[in-house]
UniProtKB/TrEMBL annotation:
Residues 8-144 form the 26S proteasome non-ATPase regulatory subunit 1/RPN2 N-terminal domain. It comes from Corethron hystrix. It comes from the Eukaryota. InterPro entries: ARM-like, Proteasome/cyclosome_rpt, PSMD1_RPN2_N. This is 26S proteasome non-ATPase regulatory subunit 1/RPN2 N-terminal domain-containing protein. Gene3D superfamilies: Leucine-rich Repeat Variant.
Length: 344
C-alpha cells in the first residue's frame, strides 16, 4: 500500500479485514475503516463501504441507515445499490440480523409525503428482507438446474439390498444411503426417490428413522409454502408426545420443519407459524426424548440469531431435565438462538 491514495488504502483494508484472526481486533479495524469512510465525501462507493462495515460489525442500525439514504436517492444507481445491500444482508446475515434490518427499515413511521415510487421501492425491499424473494429464487434455480442422477440412488439401493441378503437390512448402510440422498438433492425439492421407495424407507428404525424424516427438511429447505402439508403425516399426535417410547419419525418431522424455515430471508409469516407450531410440541413433549430432541432443534433453527429470551427459557427447562438426548438438543438450540452476528 506504500504510495497508495487514501481511498485505495481503505479499500485494501476493508477487503483484507476478514483475514484478521482475532475477533476483537478485527472489529476495531472495521470501526476505524468505517469512521474513515464516514468522513469522506458522499459517493456510491462510500455508501457501499459503509454498508459492508455495518454487515461485518453486525450493526443493523447503520446498515439500515445506508439503505434508507440510497432509497431516497433520485439516482437509479443509488437505488439499485440499496437493493444489492439488502440482498447482501440476506446472503451474509443470520435470520436475526435480517429481521432487525427489516424492522428498522419497514416498521418505522413513514412520511405522509412519500409518493408511489417510494412505496414501490419499499415493497421491493420488503420482498427481499421479509417475503422470501431470495430464498424463492434459490429454490427455483436449484430445482431447475439440479444435475443429481437418480440412477445413482437406485443402484445404491439395489446394492444394499443384495448385500443385506435380499430384503433384510443393514441399519448403518441404510442410514448412510438416506443421508447421501439428502446431500445429493439438498434444496432442490426433488423427493421422487423417497416417494417411490416408501417401503425401503420404512426399514429405518429408531434414530435412523429420525434422520430419514429429517432429511425431508434438507430436500425442501426454503420451501416454506408447502412445509406443513409435506410433513403433516409425520407430525406428533397427542398420544405420541405423552409416550416415553418411539416418536422418532415425529421428532424428525419437527427437526425437518426447522430445517425448511432456517435459511435467512425466508418468508416471515410462515416461519413465525412454524416456530409457534414447534414450540407447542416442545412444551408438550418432555416425556418423549426423541420428540423433544427434534422440537428443540427445530425451534432453534426457526429462531436462529433472534435472541428470543422467552424461547431460551423454554429450552432451559428442557435442558434441566434428566434426559441427555433432549438436553443435548436444547443446548445446541440455545446456541443457535443466541448466536451473535460477527461474519468473518
Amino acid at each position: 500500500t506504500r504510495g497508495g491514495s487514501r481511498p485505495q488504502v481503505l479499500k485494501y483494508a476493508l477487503s483484507h479485514v476478514s483475514s484478521v484472526a482475532d475477533k476483537a481486533f478485527r472489529q476495531e479495524v472495521v470501526g476505524l475503516v468505517r469512521d474513515a469512510y464516514a468522513a469522506s465525501p458522499p459517493s456510491l462507493e462510500r455508501e457501499a463501504a459503509l454498508a459492508s462495515c455495518a454487515l461485518r460489525g453486525g450493526d443493523a442500525g447503520r446498515c439500515a441507515e445506508v439503505v434508507e439514504r440510497l432509497l431516497q436517492n433520485t439516482n437509479e444507481e443509488g437505488v439499485l445499490l440499496a437493493y444489492q445491500i439488502c440482498l447482501d444482508v440476506v446472503e451474509g446475515g443470520d435470520g436475526g440480523f435480517v429481521a432487525r434490518v427489516a424492522k428498522i427499515l419497514l416498521d418505522a413511521p413513514k412520511s405522509e409525503e412519500e409518493d408511489a415510487a417510494m412505496t414501490k421501492k419499499r415493497d421491493l425491499v420488503k420482498g427481499i428482507l421479509r417475503d422470501g424473494m431470495v430464498v424463492s429464487l434459490h429454490l427455483s434455480f436449484l430445482h431447475k438446474h439440479s444435475n443429481s442422477d437418480r440412477l445413482v440412488m437406485e443402484n445404491l439401493r439395489k446394492t444394499l439390498d443384495e448385500r443385506s441378503g435380499g430384503g433384510g437390512r443393514s441399519s448403518v448402510l441404510h442410514h448412510c444411503a438416506v443421508v447421501a440422498h439428502a446431500y445429493l438433492n439438498a434444496g432442490t425439492t426433488r423427493d421422487g426417490f423417497l416417494r417411490d421407495n416408501l417401503d425401503w424407507m420404512r426399514r429405518a428404525s429408531n434414530w435412523a428413522k429420525f434422520s430419514a424424516t429429517a432429511s425431508m427438511g434438507v430436500l425442501h429447505a426454503g420451501h416454506t409454502s408447502e412445509s406443513m402439508t409435506l410433513l403433516e403425516p409425520y407430525f406428533p399426535s397427542p398420544d405420541a408426545a405423552s409416550s416415553t417410547t418411539g416418536g422418532y419419525a415425529e421428532g424428525g418431522s419437527l427437526y425437518a420443519l426447522g430445517l425448511i424455515h432456517s435459511p435467512a430471508g425466508c418468508s416471515a409469516s410462515p416461519r413465525a407459524a412454524a416456530a409457534d407450531f414447534i414450540r407447542t410440541h416442545l412444551r408438550a413433549s418432555h416425556a418423549n426424548e426423541a420428540i423433544s430432541h427434534g422440537a428443540a432443534l427445530g425451534a432453534g433453527l426457526c429462531a436462529m440469531g433472534s435472541r428470543d429470551l422467552e424461547l431460551v427459557h423454554e429450552l432451559k427447562e428442557l435442558l434441566y431435565t434428566d434426559s441427555a438426548v433432549a438436553g443435548e438438543a436444547a443446548g445446541i438450540a440455545i446456541g443457535l438462538v443466541l448466536e451473535p452476528y460477527f461474519p468473518s
